[in-house]
Design brief:
seven-stranded mixed beta sheet, 281 residues
């Protein structure tokens, strides 16, 4: 059981969480039961892994990219029949893994340099569901990312990411994590967040989801502009005003002022009006 000679590597975004109180809070937030199958991304030296295996969880599947950590992890935890370790890049692996129970929860101190694509893999995106349906994800992320995910309309942190994630899941904060809780300490404050994907029946239908995605891309590219400017040309001005009013949207507003429900309503109205008007964009 040794990781002697191994040093945290910047290219892998390695910062080992060492504070036992934060590690315990992560496990408590996961609320692991005897029928849970857990996915851990980037176990590192196994501080969180140890606590996950001390829980009632039925199994733990860990994915580690750094080959120099793999031998130590197998030596440390391989005697536990519930533990499986896969060496590789989680972004290049097919989920769920063949011949293994589909994970029900994700618990991880994720590498900050892959946060965006990893969230897309684990939670999905509008119009493209995740390959695995997780009950809950408990993730350690940069606080800035956590704030953007949880931000409310009107906040400076509110963004297209806020809308996407809040349409796909319920998002909440567990606790902030200062740099001193890591070795080596990162230059930013971190945060433990909980993401609970909504059931499939609560997701927007495909056509509506894709319409929202297109609208978010268009409008947040000019987030300082009023919607009357970014939406100009989609419909004749009187029709655009009518659709916006029906959706509860003021075209004087800017993108960060609309909550997820208003984006859904606006995208649906624009889609319907454009389909009815062959001359619409």
């Amino acid at each position: 059981m040794t990781f002697s000679g191994h040093r945290a590597r910047k290219r892998f975004g390695q910062h080992w969480l060492t504070d036992p109180r934060i590690l315990d809070r992560i496990v408590v937030a996961a609320d692991l039961r005897g029928d849970d199958h857990v996915l851990e991304v980037g176990p590192g030296r196994g501080a969180l892994t140890e606590r996950l295996l001390a829980s009632p969880a039925a199994s733990l599947l860990a994915v580690e990219l750094d080959r120099d950590l793999v031998a130590g992890l197998r030596q440390r935890f391989g005697v536990d029949g519930r533990f499986t370790l896969i060496e590789g890049d989680v972004l290049e692996l097919a989920l769920p893994f063949p011949d293994r129970p589909a994970p029900t929860k994700v618990v991880a101190n994720i590498p900050y340099n892959i946060t965006g694509p990893l969230l897309e893999l684990l939670v999905g995106r509008l119009g493209r569901p995740a390959p695995c349906r997780f009950e809950k994800l408990v993730l350690l992320v940069q606080q800035e990312v956590g704030q953007r995910i949880r931000a409310r309309p009107g906040s400076s942190a509110f963004s297209a990411l806020s809308v996407r994630l809040q349409l796909l899941a319920r998002c909440s904060s567990v606790c902030p994590v200062p740099p001193r809780c890591f070795s080596p300490p990162p230059k930013v404050t971190s945060e433990v967040i909980v993401i609970e994907p909504v059931p499939p029946e609560s997701l927007p239908p495909l056509a509506q989801a894709l319409a929202v995605e297109r609208l978010l891309t268009r409008c947040f590219a000019g987030r300082r502009k009023m919607l009357r400017t970014t939406l100009a040309g989609l419909l004749p001005a009187p029709d655009l005003l009518e659709v916006a009013a029906a959706a509860g949207v003021d075209l004087q507003q800017r993108p960060q002022e609309l909550g997820p429900d208003r984006w859904l309503a606006l995208a649906t109205g624009l889609n319907r009006a454009s389909s009815a008007d062959p001359g619409g964009a």
